Amino acid sequence: MLHVAKVLKRAGAGLLLPLLLVAGGCRQDMRDQARLNPLAASDFFSDGSASRPLLTNTIARGHLTLDTPWFTGKTNGQFVTEFPCEVDEALLRRGQERFGIYCTPCHDRAGTGDGMIVRRGFIKPRSYHDPLLRAQPHGYYFDVITHGFGNMSDYAAQVPIADRWAIVAYIRALQVSQHATADLLQDEDRALLASGGVKPSATETGHATGAHGHHE
Ligand code: HEC
Predict the structure, then answer these.
(1) Whose CA is nearest to atom 25 of ligand 1?
(2) Cα atoms in the Cβ-side hemisphere of radius 13 Å centred on 173
(3) Atom 24, ligand 1: which residue's CA is nearest?
(4) Which residue range(s) make up the domain with 196?
(5) How much distance in Å is there from the Cα of 149 to the middle of ligand 1?
(6) What pTM does this model have?
(7) CA–CA separation, 133 vs 61, rounded Å?
(8) Cys-Cys with 36: which of 3, 50, 54, 175 at CB 3.0–4.6 Å?
(9) Do 94 and 194 lie in a common domain?
(10) Average pLDDT of the chain?
(11) Percent of the chain topping pLDDT 90
């Protein structure tokens, strides 16, 4: 505005004003052309609506969701028990990172539900190590992230589908980490466990029986 005022002063309003009017006039054609507002009434089409219904079997770009296990965590209305993607180390690492960002504030790094927000008064969620929760299929976790659960809001906007599956895989790894059985250990570690021995390495001392061996 300031700039315009300066120009007006310099050029003299008498010269500039007609110019502005002419310039403004250029846009009127576009503005006044025959058109209808979205969802407005119209007698042009027989159903009386300006907007056309979607043609059957038409899908907008990026909205094709035929692979229901991937998009919903369900197949035939039931939560999936198999991952709809390959679970490898890269996926688990991605899941660990995303879980750290989006879930640990409440569920904490181990998934026990003692995150910082909970410590400051938010409702404490059930521990992921609760037998009830451990028994839930993979699809259940995907569904909770997608739609929320009780007092927990959904993370559909923040966490894209591929990352949701990565987080689910990581939650599964967390659960295994707290409920591993000896047969999941590598031979070397199982032998160590059987002998009640402690690895000579200094950093391992004190974690001899439980914590190591889950290299997968
Ligand atoms: C702001 C806190 C908060 C964050 C962040 C959060 N949750 Fe939750 N979550 C909760 C609360 C609280 C509940 C329990 C809600 C209830 O029982 O009403 C819950 C429940 C759950 C449950 C269901 C537990 C059950 O009892 O069946 C799962 C699974 C879960 N969260 C996973 C996640 C995942 C995965 C993330 C990250 C993407 C996440 N949550 C992020 C607070 C949070």
Answers:
(1) 126
(2) 20
(3) 126
(4) 185-210
(5) 7
(6) 0.71
(7) 36
(8) 50
(9) no
(10) 85
(11) 54
